[in-house]
């Protein structure tokens, strides 16, 4: 056997639930979740993973599963994996863990994914004030390509990547997270100056025991309760990497993660077949189960050597990434711009979030002229290989953000046409197949963003 | 003569000042600034332009010109240019003006540019709290490449583009601009919740007569005074395009601008040899004089056909852009991440501006380990072809922004090295050639961001 | 189960020989080899395949298996596969069969490959007069990357593709092949005017019963004998596609194959992890076993619609290919040139073969200055993602051919250095690990191309 | 003035003939043609050049100028330029001259070019047996794009490059050239085994006084006569570089030329706005006048250090090239294949020239189905950015060559369509505007390749 067949260190049985897997998954960050496997530097190993909801979202035409999803249970992660050097000495706090993504893909027999918008009462998304309903689109894979029965007329190659990859935090780092997020949760509503849109989304998700899964630590035990009350939720990306959602982290990428605990305790999950920059619908990539083939190096003392703390403690750092050399080539892009003026005409000061929101809304409105409902475009821009850029962040008072959409993913020419060219009849898509869980008050193309 | 030699419709004499040019320049947006030239659709025409300061910044080793720049005079624009169709009928409000950038470059004999940071008391920049001093780097061009005596060891191909291209606003649109920006200026200091860093930068630049240049309208006349008191400043990008600073708008790009006045009244300026996404130092691209070869089409009724208002009036729109097919290929990128936690450790809610700030600071700190001062890296990241992305904007409470730097622009390998590879001595650069206008209290690598 | 899980229509058991597989393989082209499977248009199906030698070459340090390989047995192909439309009607002669390559890769547990040079007495290669000995290099795969213990210091992403994909010829087409190749074989030696180098290689491989495997037709039967005496060898690419060795036929590619028999009878094999243009050593890609996920369309009457015969009969056509959108990005290439003057200084008239030979020899000599033996570079250029171009084919008397090598595959800078830059000690590679089957008279760097 | 404004060392006045220019041009290679300028290493300098015919081909609708072109006069080159180091010491035989192409483009006021086929009695082309008539297409430039009134419906960005760049040969090298080409000319007709097509083209162009221009050496003098009788013609690429026609030698490229005489004596000419690999029609790029901005380095002793003679003397070497990082991105290519079987069905042994001929013929036939005449496609494939590859050169008896055409250059979808998609009416182009100099016996689409 060739030395480069990856060893499966975390196997997944798709017929079982997250807590029934041979190596139980976890959905929180905590230093005391025990490793389920150990790997040596230089070893090629495979980590299998469920989709971020652990199978709660089904391949069908109804969004009821999205509407009722229990967000306390996500994301289900595979690991932690302890990393040791050739002499068996574990990675140590202060080291950098370099993780190369050698290969990845769907699990055989499970070559499909989904993109969804949450209900505004259950997580919402970037444009929840415009799109308050739960919606869902299913995607099927044909090798590198994805296509959807719910958003017809598009097909694109995926730049597949794990949404989440990170090391375990130390107790000290965990405390920093909990404190700063609790402060936001408690004081945020008073002071928040973002556009009103986002007000109704939860500000921060603090530790809670509900839905908590901690790997090999049995639910309900005192140890489990203690950890569950301390452990950080997996939604935001943080100093340990985590849910960074960087769409280019595909084959050939290398991630330099800070190490906070002995053995590094690497976890990963939330595989995406494809994602647009920003992952705007929140459940926004093409979410899937899958496998990762990884190889680790330890850079001893690398945190001090390469990372500079950006905050009050030496732990306020961020990972560094090297992007791989393989990605789809697109030659033509249509670029939508947004400035930091909100939908009510209000001026915001260099606010890239507002500017990006407007760029996305502009793109949705434009593309909905080509036979799609706005809900379809919102889902599409969340998961297709579009690029979201901060173009200008200094020209007071307007931040300029742009969203670039590759034109080749459409089966029609979506560029503006000179007045001289007679435009053929635009294709009529089937927005009705996009099922929404609300009866009687569906958002429609005529009534976008209807509030229930 | 071949039919495709461009007609020079706006010539520049580099030995003259902006108000001495044959076709006087302008530095404000107003519908009543009269066109200086007329072009037909399909015609290839050349527009020459001064650098955004009109020659105020010199090719030398001192930043005193940057420190003392009068910002009321920028940006000097060429135009307005009236656009008519083949029958001589002007573009009308409600049309789209499609402007193709066929070619561009420096003016012969002026193949250099500069990147600068403003003093925090005079405009500042994205990181003015960390870098409060005026600094300047000169760049020389060797065809597609730029190199700097002030930031040695880097050389990169430029993706040259105009920072500003736009149509004239109507009076109605101008009024919208002035009102929303005045409201920010007046109420902003009380309510602003951005990280403290940005507090001291001017919030909005309202109309003022000081420094105002209005093309063929003579300074001091009642007409000049009236317009100067109404005309919008050119700093922010707005509904008419303007200072959008989109770094990929190079050869082969096409810009679809809304038309608000008869003839469209196209103006352009602020040529950049190269810019990084965000243009973070504010005077942040490689600023230069230059020429643009353009070709226009009119899409009659295109605003209604293709743009959807995103705000209370039909004028709340944004241009659309098509990127050209030619740009430098880079195969390897090092990516720095930022989350919306500020330097004091404070948590912000999905704030992409804060996240991008942290990504840029992370990149500056990292790259300063390779023989550069932080001031040098700040200038470099503002003007080299780096990409600033909004990677995740939904994972409460953290926005994730990334800054991707192409590794090939450096003459050394800047990637983190495994602990096993002995690292050679890092190159010592010459940060001292970066002159700062403050005596006695220079920011240094040991004392970054010293406040004066 | 998702509808896009591919159905395995040709399974391979790596522990068995080609003639022991459940669906016996074949190594000849003939219309009467019966299909082993049937697929519908639009169906995603998987074809597994052995490496081209059916496992004869082993993962070890000796080239004795290469030296003694029985070339009468190659290439082992999977298929034929009958293709029918949605109504079950087979593809017909005159149709085009569009085959999309949706995915491909190594078989699990078999993630390795080899590149080899044949002995000049047993097949040789493009440079057999310079490199007459059998040599072999083993490559291991780490996801998208390959590396070799026999050619250290290089690592590159593969552009994996099937070397052979084709439809079955009709009896009429088969007759054309046999006649023209027999004529060459019989008259070639007298008239051949190519550089002497190539003289000793076999001119054409005519049908022979030795080594012949014909799928489900049992060896030794009269039917088998009849077909074996008629069936075309698989070495050359021909009108049916076949061994076209186009290195860019990777994920997302689409191949438009002419159909000559009912059902099309598609066969494929000879998987390559990576190949350089020209595949110069003959066993020259990184040869491997693997799987292909395919999807077919039938374009009824497409041969007449899209292909124009280029010869005396309507059968003298060639397939058309669409390349997929995903391939490794390389930004820097070193380009070696050759002109149609041979190694003895003799002038050839616009001979692209001679020009390409000289370009490859130039590249070998150049790269051997960086610590490699010439044998190592010859193997490397045969399998790495280098591009072989016909740059000029009209400038009498010299054809100009070029070979472009991506510099990023090396762990050292291989570009020529200015005389001012002190060059560090070049790395010493281990050419001795490249085992050659000749005792006592190995080609060495000092004695390249020694004739035995 | 900035230090990087290029010094014009060879100016061109487009109103004057080649022998009337201030620095007279030359159209032969000889060591005794005296330098017209001297440059230092590191200096940025500009070389202007006429088109290869020195203005003989006009911007009009008649091909009579092509039919009657005196080929004894081409190519007109600018130079020679003597290169010295910083101490003023010239480049010496045995050095390498590294020439960086910093910028290039058309001369102002002359933004057009042409592609032509020669009459088979006057130079012919790669497919002269199929296309025996003189034809011509004019191209106009709009910045990076070219379009033609004679081949409508295509528009593409140019990858502009000099067709010819080279150093002066030594007398010894010149003697080698003359001998080997004379031998071919004298013995070629008897032994030539290429496909008949090429028979009637001139085999080699030997020195002749007719049409000879030798820079500052006055015509008719004894010195002129002596040199003219010895000097090599400029048609073929050779050991000194020369007419290498490598289409990717654009901005940012670096060429490592061997030095054979003191000062290197660099000459350049034959600017191409764009060229396809192979430049198949012979006058086959978009031929234009233009300028090159260059910068030289001398690598002392570099010939021995980096080049290995491939022939009986140390002079049998070839230049090395580094390709620049900027070229048009194309994402979709249609690939045509050819094998070494000629149009009469005859089998050739691994003959890449025959294979490439068939690939080009296949592409011409295919594309002529989309509203073009075959003559138009022949011209188009000669000058558009298509790639000609040697895909397989070892699979006896067939060489496989491919021609990849970027689909984005057409204003219609040129891919084969599934039988289910109704194809719209194909556009009717205007082949008649392609003027041919033969009266009464034009090749037509119905009668391609008519022999006169």
Automatic annotation (TrEMBL), chains A, B, C, D:
InterPro entries: FmdA_AmdA (IPR004304), FormamaseFmdA (IPR054833). It comes from Citrus clementina. It comes from the Eukaryota. GO terms for molecular function: hydrolase activity, acting on carbon-nitrogen (but not peptide) bonds, in linear amides. SUPFAM superfamilies: Acetamidase/Formamidase-like. This is Formamidase. Pfam families: FmdA_AmdA. The lineage of its organism: Eukaryota, Viridiplantae, Streptophyta, Embryophyta, Tracheophyta.
């Amino acid at each position: 056997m060739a030395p480069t067949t990856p060893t499966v260190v975390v196997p997944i049985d798709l017929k079982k639930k997250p807590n029934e897997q041979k190596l139980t998954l976890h959905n929180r960050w905590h230093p005391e979740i025990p490793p389920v496997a150990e790997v040596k530097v230089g070893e090629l190993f495979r980590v299998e993973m469920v989709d971020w909801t652990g199978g709660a979202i089904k391949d069908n035409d109804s969004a009821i599963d999205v509407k009722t999803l229990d967000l306390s249970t996500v994301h289900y992660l595979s690991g932690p994996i302890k990393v040791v050097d050739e002499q068996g000495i574990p990675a140590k706090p202060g080291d950098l863990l370099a993780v190369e993504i050698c290969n990845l893909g769907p699990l055989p027999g499970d070559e499909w994914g989904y993109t969804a918008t949450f209900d505004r009462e259950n997580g919402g998304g970037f444009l929840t004030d415009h799109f308050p309903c739960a919606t869902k689109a299913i995607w099927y894979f044909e090798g590198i390509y994805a296509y959807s029965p719910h958003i017809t007329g598009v097909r694109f190659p995926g730049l597949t990547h794990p949404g989440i990859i990170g090391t375990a935090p130390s107790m000290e780092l965990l405390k920093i997270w909990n404190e700063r997020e609790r402060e936001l949760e408690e004081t945020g509503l008073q002071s928040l100056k973002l556009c009103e849109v986002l007000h109704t989304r939860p500000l921060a998700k603090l530790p809670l025991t509900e839905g908590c899964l901690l790997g090999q630590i049995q639910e309900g035990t005192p140890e489990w309760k203690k950890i569950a009350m301390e452990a950080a939720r997996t939604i935001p990306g943080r100093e340990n990497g985590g849910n960074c959602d960087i769409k280019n982290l595909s084959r050939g990428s290398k991630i330099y993660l800070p190490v906070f605990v002995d053995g590094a305790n690497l976890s990963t999950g939330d595989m995406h077949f494809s994602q647009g920059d920003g992952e705007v619908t929140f459940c926004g990539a093409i979410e899937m189960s899958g496998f990762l083939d990884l190889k680790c190096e330890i850079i001893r003392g690398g945190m001090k050597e390469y990372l500079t703390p950006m905050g009050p403690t030496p732990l306020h750092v961020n990972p560094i990434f090297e992007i791989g050399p393989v990605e789809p080539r697109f030659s033509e892009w249509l670029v939508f711009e947004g400035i930091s003026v909100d939908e009510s005409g209000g001026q915001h000061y260099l606010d890239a979030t507002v500017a990006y929101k407007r760029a996305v809304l502009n793109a949705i409105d434009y593309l909905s002229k080509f036979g799609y409902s706005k809900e379809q475009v919102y889902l599409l821009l969340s998961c297709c290989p579009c690029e979201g850029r901060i173009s200008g962040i200094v020209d007071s008072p307007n931040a300029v953000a742009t969203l670039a959409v590759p034109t080749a993913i459409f089966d029609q020419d979506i560029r503006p046409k000179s007045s001289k060219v007679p435009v053929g009849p635009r294709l009529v898509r089937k927005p009705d197949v996009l099922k929404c869980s609300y009866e009687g008050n569906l958002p429609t193309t005529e009534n976008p963003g209807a509030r229930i």
